[in-house]
Write a structure and sequence with these properties.
By secondary structure, this protein is α/β, with parallel strands linked by helices. It has three domains: 44 residues, lambda repressor-like DNA-binding domains (434 Repressor (Amino-terminal Domain), Orthogonal Bundle); 136 residues, Response regulator (Rossmann fold, 3-Layer(aba) Sandwich), CATH 3.40.50.2300; 130 residues, Response regulator (Rossmann fold). It is 44% helix and 15% strand. It has 14 helices and twelve strands. The protein has a six-stranded parallel β-sheet with strand order 2-1-3-4-5-11, sandwiched between helices. Helix 1 crosses helix 2. The longest helix is centred in the last third of the chain and has 21 residues. The protein is elongated, with a radius of gyration of 26 Å. It starts with 19 loop residues before the first helix and ends in a 5-residue tail after the last strand. GO terms for molecular function: DNA-binding transcription factor activity; transcription cis-regulatory region binding. This is LacI family transcriptional regulator. Keywords: DNA-binding, Transcription, Transcription regulation. InterPro entries: HTH_LacI, LacI/GalR-like_sensor, Lambda_DNA-bd_dom_sf, Peripla_BP_I.
Length: 358
């Protein structure tokens, strides 16, 4: 025998959650109409929407998100995958800014964010098994190297994915990137405008497409000014502070006459500054210094660092927007293997922020 509790004061029956059917009865509409309102469908009149929303508020109805996700073959979760060692992730402001942007974009949704590292083969295999089990609806990939097998694996699994920074000019996945080429070229133009002519560069890892584009922008800036390329002024590094120190030491041994340095990240510029100071070079009197990212490091250096600002938080927001759009496309084109995706390639502008170091 079922005993029904009466409503008190217009609220739902005590001892149980109000149901979709109760909301429909209170609003005087069908169950399907309530579902459309809750899911944000535009196929509902404003009058009906207002009636349903009033009934939801009056009854204290809370949608059963787990059931909705199950019915839609969704998990309401996405993964942020970082194919880098954890040490680099926690040392570089870039990653925290990306996560902040992703968090802002997800704040008005019910989607959960999972963070995972996958720099080693064992981690990649474990991630592949997790993704193959369809435990997330999509993947955000950050800091992907050109030879990383993860994007192709995700593509083979037909999982919606967006990468932060293209792997090449012909990136097949949806991507969000900053204009690394123009940002670097602007930095070189600034240094040339300050009368610097022996401009060195400390590159990031050149298996990262963004680092290669910054090197291309450096070379283009010199070429447009009529200066010949000098490979003795180019030193590769790895986006770390220690890498910046090693590269700066090598450059000074090889070219003690250099009068400016463009480092492809603020972290590397910080390492370069330490070596310049140790060797008695004044900044900017003897050597001008410019970084890339415009992170908190740039603002807190002594002297404050001129840097190319890339909109990192906006990149995180835009990546999330693209991924949610892909997931919605999957929902509309089952099965996953048959989906039609737009695969947008978004390029965001950079800005040179001039400070005392140059």
């Amino acid at each position: 025998m079922t005993i029904r509790q009466p409503r008190v004061g217009g609220r739902a029956r005590s001892g149980g959650r109000p149901t979709l059917e109760e909301v429909a009865a209170r609003a005087g509409v069908g169950r399907g109409t309530v579902s459309r309102v809750i899911n944000g469908s535009p196929r509902v009149s404003e009058r009906t929407r207002a009636a349903v929303e009033a009934a939801v508020a009056e009854l204290g109805y809370v949608p059963n998100t787990a059931a909705r996700a199950l019915a839609a073959n969704r998990t309401d979760a996405i993964a942020l995958v970082v194919p880098e060692p954890e040490g680099r992730f926690f040392a570089e402001p870039y990653f925290s800014d990306i996560i902040h942007g992703v968090g802002v974009a997800l704040a008005e949704t019910e989607v959960q964010l999972l963070l995972t590292f996958a720099s080693a083969d064992r981690e990649r295999r474990r991630l592949a098994q997790y993704l193959a089990a369809q435990r997330v609806d999509g993947v955000l990939l950050v800091s992907v190297h050109a030879d990383d097998p993860l994007p192709d694996l995700i593509e083979d699994l037909h999982i919606p994915a967006v990468v932060s920074g293209r792997r090449s000019a012909s990136e097949p996945l949806a991507s969000v990137d900053s204009d690394n080429f123009e940002g670097a070229k602007a930095a070189i133009g600034h240094l040339l405008g300050r009368g610097r002519t022996r401009i060195a560069t400390i590159t990031g890892r050149l298996d990262v497409y963004g680092a290669q584009r910054r090197l291309d922008g450096y070379r283009a800036g010199l070429s447009e000014a009529g200066l010949e390329e000098d490979e003795s002024l180019v030193e590769p590094a790895d986006f770390t502070e220690e890498g910046g120190r090693r590269a700066m030491s090598a450059l000074l041994r090889r070219r003690p006459d250099l009068d400016a340095v463009f480092a492809a990240s603020d972290v590397m510029a910080s390492g370069a500054r330490q070596i310049l100071r140790e060797q008695g070079r004044r900044i900017p009197e003897d050597v001008s210094l410019v970084g890339f990212d415009d992170s908190a490091i740039a603002r807190h250096m002594d002297p404050p660092l001129t840097s190319v600002r890339q909109p990192i938080e906006e990149m995180g927001r835009e990546m999330t927007r693209l991924l949610l759009a892909e997931i919605a496309s999957v929902d509309a084109h089952h099965p996953r293997s048959a989906r039609q995706l737009t695969r947008e390639q978004v390029l965001l502008p950079t800005e040179l922020v001039v400070r005392a170091s140059s």
